[in-house]
Amino acid sequence: MRDQRLFPLFQPLDALPGIGPKLKPTLEHLVGGETVWDLLLHMPERWLDRRPVDSFENLVPGDVATVRGEVHSVKAPYNDRAPTRIEMYDGTGFLSITYFRADPRWLQGQFPVGKERIVSGRVEDYRGERQMSHPDYVLDPAKGELPPPVEPIYPLTAGLTNKRVHASTIAALDLLPEGLPEWIDPALISKQGWPDFKAALSGIHAPTQWDEAFTQLCQTRLAYDEALARELTFANARAARSLRPAPSIPAAPEALNRLVKTLPFKPTGAQIRATKEIMSDMNEPHPMRRMLQGDVGSGKTLVGAFAAVQAAAGKFQTAFMAPTEVLARQQFDTLDKMLSPHGFSVAILTGRDKGKKRESILMGLADGSLQIIAGTQALFQEGVRFQKLGLIIVDEQHRFGVADRMKLASKGEAPHVLVMSATPIPRTLAQSIHGDLDVSVLDEMPAGRQPIETRAVADIRIENVIEATGRALQRGERAFWVCPRVEVDDEDGSSAISRAAMLKDVLQVPVGLVHGRMKGEDKDAALDDFRTGRTKLLVATTVIEVGVDVPEATIMVIERAEGFGLAQLHQLRGRVGRGDRPSFCILLYRSPLTELARERLDTLRRTDDGFEIAEADFKLRGPGDLLGKRQSGLIDYRLIDLNLHGDLIMIARQDARLAVERAEAMSPERASALAILSQLLSPDLSFSD
Ligand code: ADP
Ligand code: MG
User: Fold this and answer.
1) What are 69's strand-pairing partners?
2) Shortest-distance atom of ligand 1 to CA 267
3) Same domain (yes/no): 394, 265
4) Are 135 and 31 members of one domain?
5) Is residue 400 included in any domain, yes or no?
6) Do 301 and 349 share a domain, yes or no?
7) List of residues 6+ apart from 276 with CB closer than 8 A
8) Same structural domain for residues 328 and 194?
9) Phi, psi at residue 348, to the nearest 5°?
10) What's the 332 CA to ligand 1 centre distance in angstroms?
């Protein structure tokens, strides 16, 4: 399928000169791929300006600079540990070049007294004097030698130098085929003044002159290439979806109104907006693929329940899937309490339901007597058959990969899918990652929420925190205590197991413990004990990150908070402040904090708006960190920088949709150009629909 012209690019890395069996794995690791093309996608993090500076006088310590001057003297080291010093003079002043443990004969060849030399390297200030030690280049201007005017500086890994990576990249550029057809709309190219594809890659990896504006044009051109490739993939997935039939499930306003009347609160405007969007999607005879995004506590479950009611009213079944047993059970409790009184049949199925109980649930699903089923992935295992599955709701989808999502969507007869995410993602990012989905946002919190006071406390003051927690427990409140690890073999006692023992000892209250290594039943029991108040304090790892709802809990202590992601901390904090008493979140940190860690904890203290936090984290650390490791695979951008290229994505989306709509009328040349682009840059997601 691959265009023959691209074959040279998809060779293994050891096809490049200088890359043998030893360097190959190191380079593969560095570039995150195995081909020459992957190397070309390994972008410099910056460019070094090696143009000569006019005089020694203008040198700035800390900068890398290139200067020209005359060798004035070479002074041998006065002892073993001192450097050889070469004094250079350029009419405006002196510059010392220093070499430690250098061969004197070699040095004399490099720096003949009275001759001119060009040196390039980092300028230092040594006791008030300009100095450069071990310059990167020493060149002879009489021979016309000059350093490269611009040098790309790459992210590196142990075992590879910048020179090596750069040389390989230049060799890789030679393998770029000539005369690839242009895939970007010519009008856009000329409007933006973009270079062609090959020129853009050369401009990045082998610039011939220092020209920041041009470098930027090269970067944006390539970012657009990637955006266009992604959006083409998404547009094709959408087009395919709009051809697939799905049951049209009409809106059921009466049933919804009846339900709303029995709620102890009024739905927020955002909940109503999202519900309307979902209602009209489900009414279409094509599968819905919608993401419902909303901060912790924004009330996503209710919106999901509304959708389930619409399905049930239309005689379709709903599968409501949660990432963990505990959450599935909580989801079930909520749905059961809310919907059973209205005559809907609600049940739960997880991997732990066995024997007779499982049999009867499977029967209910198969004969259609069960309308709404909560559960874990177990819902989609072999042997589970639905009579008429109309809607799949996936809660906290960031725990599921795109592949899971796609697999799941292939179940049943092309049902509607609603995924719910509590990771507040900046909108541009959301649209770009979830390009295959429509997005609804709950951007309004239910009224009457208690603000949570957040404090960052150094862990040397842990005793004060324990005391304060003890006082709150005596007032009848409950507290979460989150630890970074489970194991016992810790030096500082911050593992969940040893912390639980310690707190029980000090506070003399019933303490629960829940962590990821426990069996499902035990986890549930621990959470249940805490919910019902049999335990007052729950020590946990991040298994409680999502969803657990205990209104009596007013204190959230997070140990080693500096090690958690900002979004994750925000999620954890959202476990408190759900009742009517004032709540606190204590971020215990280990000093000294890095600048970045301090800034993140500050952000968290300053605001409890999940979207603001997401934006902040995004700016501080980029999208990978915001989403956590599990999800960073979703934003496998190689060339796009969302901070810079958000608008390009929007343009690419329009272009891609237009291209897919007019595919029939497209010239074969353009079709083949777009195909080449897709082979180079389409995202590595397997769409099953
Ligand atoms: P999340 O979006 O984190 O899943 P939930 O659906 O668990 O949020 O809702 C959090 C809490 O807010 C629940 O106790 C729920 O009953 C309550 N809730 C939901 N919608 C509203 C509303 N419109 N007004 C007041 N409380 C609400
Ligand atoms: Mg939820």
Assistant:
1) 117
2) 23
3) yes
4) no
5) yes
6) yes
7) none
8) no
9) -130, 145
10) 14
Task: Pick the ligand that lies closest to the CA of residue 306.
Answer: 1
pTM for this predicted structure = 0.71
pLDDT along the chain (689 residues), means of 10: 90 94 94 94 93 88 93 89 92 93 88 95 91 93 88 92 93 94 95 96 94 95 95 86 90 95 94 97 93 87 97 96 83 94 95 88 95 89 87 75 55 75 69 75 84 93 96 95 78 81 94 88 86 93 70 94 86 86 94 89 89 76 50 63 81 92 90 94 56
Q: Nearest 5 degrees, angle CA 461-CA 462-CA 465?
A: 100
Output the residue whose Cα is nearest ligand 1's atom 17.
Answer: 299
Q: Which of 302, 398, 546, 570 to mutate to test the pocket of ligand 1 (most atoms within 8 A of CB)?
A: 302
| ω into 592 cis (within 30 of 0) | yes
| 20-to-27, 31, 39, 81, 549 alpha-carbon distances in Å | 10, 16, 15, 37, 56
Pocket test for ligand 1, best of 261, 275, 298, 301 (most atoms within 8 A of CB): 301
Which residues sit with their C-beta closer than 6 Å to ligand 1? 265-268, 271, 294, 296-302, 422, 446, 549
Same domain, 162 and 94: no
Residue pair 76/111 in contact (Cβ under 8 Å)? The answer is: no
Ligand 2 mean position, distance from CA 291 (Å): 13
Residue-wise pLDDT for 381-437, tens only, equals 778 899 999 999 988 655 555 555 555 555 545 589 998 987 766 666 666 666 777
Question: Within a domain: residue 214?
Answer: no
Domain with residue 499: its CATH number is 3.40.50.300
CA of 298 to the centre of ligand 1 (A): 6
Would strands 537-540 and 511-514 be described as parallel, antiparallel, or unpaired?
parallel
Ligand 1 centre and the CA of 549: distance in Å? 10
What are 557-566's pLDDT values in tens digits?
999 999 888 8
In a domain, 649, yes or no: no
Domain ranges, residue 90: 51-147
